[in-house]
Write a structure and sequence with these properties.
By secondary structure, the protein is an alpha/beta fold. The chain contains nine helices and 14 strands. It has two domains: 144 residues, Oxidized Rhodanese, domain 1, CATH 3.40.250; 117 residues, Rhodanese-like domain (Oxidized Rhodanese, domain 1), CATH 3.40.250. Helices cover 25% and strands 16% of the residues. The chain is globular and about 55 Å long. The N and C termini lie far apart (41 Å).
Length: 279
């Protein structure tokens, strides 16, 4: 199954009957927004998928916790998403938060979801049309959820499997944050990484703002996971973990789970073990 589409493909299919385009842009950690010239435009017909206001568990003390299945379904129905919809998601940074939505749909049992490779920046640089963002009215959908809770894990499960040789935990944060040599943007967190995990910065699977081609992606994942262990993905708060989960899916490696709380959870002051470059 395809997990991404090109800007050319989307431009050719903009008027497809069952196509739903979602803009999942959020600020990066630290508040960085997309380039100024991209902030007030969208791909024609795109609907805003609100990761921070709607599709999130607001009762959680962690930054980006998955919504409940009922809340997810209710939010999708207001966007006109149906069970037979082909959903294309993008973000204004290129490849950042859109894979989180791709993974969320998978968790909720909707398989027909793909990420626009390169996002809005690549769409614009390719010369395709945009429109000014305007308020969107509700469009009724009928999506049904088939929840796959095993695709998400918490710290207790991570603590169980970190020494299990059949799993490999990959961390999408920068190498400096992984090693504990660069500060965490959330100052209350410890530095370092989950013992036994490996570093795979999400930027390492991108080139010039788009994802590596399939052959290059396979070579990268074959190098870091030669035994094709069951992959578990972590990052700062559950967003870019989904970028490297998307990369693994493209590379035909086993996508097992995303650690939803990621370092925002594990890195809090606690008795959970942490490794750094000095250990």
């Amino acid at each position: 199954m395809d997990h991404i589409v090109s800007a050319e493909w989307l431009n050719d299919h903009l008027n497809d009957e069952n196509l739903i385009i979602l803009d999942a842009t959020i600020p990066k950690v630290g508040g960085k927004l997309p380039a100024e010239e991209l902030q007030d435009i969208r791909i024609p017909g795109a609907r805003f998928f609100d990761l921070k206001g709607v599709f999130i568990d607001k009762e959680s003390e962690l930054p980006n916790t998955m919504p409940t299945p009922d809340k997810f379904a209710a939010g999708c129905k207001t966007l006109g998403i149906r069970g037979d919809s082909t959903v294309i998601v993008y973000d204004g940074h290129g490849i950042y938060s859109a894979p989180r939505v791709w993974y969320m749909f998978k968790v909720m049992g909707h398989e027909n979801i793909m990420v626009l490779d390169g996002g809005l920046p690549h769409w614009v640089s390719s010369g395709y049309k945009t429109e000014v963002k305007t308020p969107e009215g509700e469009v009724k959908g009928d999506i049904e959820v088939n929840h796959q809770p095993h695709m998400i894990c918490d710290s207790s499960l991570i603590n169980e499997i970190r020494n299990d040789e059949s799993y490999l935990i990959l961390d999408a944060r920068s190498e400096g944050r992984f090693n504990g040599t660069a500060p965490e943007p959330r100052k209350e967190l410890r530095g370092g990484h989950i013992p036994g995990s490996k570093s795979l910065p999400f930027t390492s699977i991108l080139k010039d703002g788009v994802l590596l081609d399939k052959r290059s992606m396979m070579a990268l994942y074959d190098q870091i996971n030669p035994e094709k262990k069951r992959l578990v993905f972590s990052c700062g708060s559950g967003i870019t973990a989904c970028v490297i989960a998307l990369g693994a899916a493209i590379a035909d490696h086993p996508v097992e789970m995303v650690y939803d709380g990621s370092w925002s959870d594990w890195g809090r002051p606690s008795e959970l073990p942490v490794e750094t470059l000095e250990d």
